[in-house]
Amino acid sequence: MSFPDIRPRRLRRTPAIRRLVEETRLAPSELILPMFLKEGLTEPKPISSLPGVLQHSRESLRKAAAEAVAAGVGGIMLFGVPDNANKDETGSAGLDPDGILNVGIRDLKAELGDSTVIVGDLCIDEFTSHGHCGVLAPDGSVDNDATLKIYGEMAVAQADAGAHMVGPSGMMDGQVGVIRKALDAAGHQDVAVLAYSVKYAGAFYGPFREAVESTLQGDRRQYQQDPPNARDALREVDLDIAEGADIVMVKPALPYLDIIAAIRDRVTVPVAAYQVSGEYAMVEAAAANGWIDRERVILESLTSIKRAGAQITLTYWAAEAATLLRDRY
Ligand code: PBG
């Protein structure tokens, strides 16, 4: 007998064989597109560190969201970017039914109804003058419990505006429980919580800060997680599920595939991942220099996130990837 007699290469020989044994297949419907709506714009405006991503006007948001849904994306995650004049110490524009985020949710609901899943980012960092995700205590630290009350009201405002889900991203202890109770008390039992359960205080959010015109000085290390720690992520997920999270999310995605995989093994709720602004910007910058094959890297990174265990991925490439995937199978 010749050696070797077991040859894995047999299953890689032709495109048809490879297709037959392919384990992980991306579908457009599992991709959520994060979008930015900027108060007062009449024309959409580019974000230099996120090439291809726009700060939208109300009109361009409706149009671009409808196009993304037509391309097959599964949902829209909306961020509001208020005028600087509307930022204050407590982020009150985030709760205002006429604040830019709630206006945008209402516009999306009017445009798309239940044909897609509309999610509001539930955090006050875009709306606070200091750029933190919570209100500040006199010593300058972020006051967890005072912030929770605000999150509860913000959730109700987003649900009133028509959000199918709210996405609490502020990493305050107890936020999912308070939001669930507030939604239920307001008659919004059917609005789901897509919890940013695991959110690392890393350096991958840089371009996002430009996208939302963040005023943050300093960092979020007192409330977001420390990158070296994995067990802390499991603890956060356990707590969020106990408090009523319907979907748990890990963020960022590609540098934290080990965390996604561990959580997938642990829970029975859907697991999502957020391929964040820094992940996007790295690929776009390398591609712009001709150093990588952009489309292949986009699909390979999304496939890897799914292979690790995320059944939903938030990505700024959602609409483009949906189009690339459309005629694949
Ligand atoms: C908080 C929030 C952030 C992102 C999503 N929600 C910023 C942060 O935590 O500092 C980052 C997303 C990205 O980088 O693409 N509202």
Automatic annotation (TrEMBL):
EC class: lyase
Database matches in CDD domains: ALAD_PBGS
Q: Which InterPro entries match?
A: ALAD, ALAD_AS, Aldolase_TIM
Q: What is its EC number?
A: 4.2.1.24
What keywords sit in the KW lines?
Answer: Heme biosynthesis, Lyase, Porphyrin biosynthesis
**Which SUPFAM superfamilies does this chain map to?**
Aldolase (SSF51569)
Q: What is this protein's function?
A: Catalyzes an early step in the biosynthesis of tetrapyrroles. Binds two molecules of 5-aminolevulinate per subunit, each at a distinct site, and catalyzes their condensation to form porphobilinogen.
Q: Which family does it belong to?
A: Belongs to the ALAD family.
- Partners and quaternary state? Homooctamer.
Q: What's the protein here called? A: Delta-aminolevulinic acid dehydratase
Gene name tied to this protein: hemB
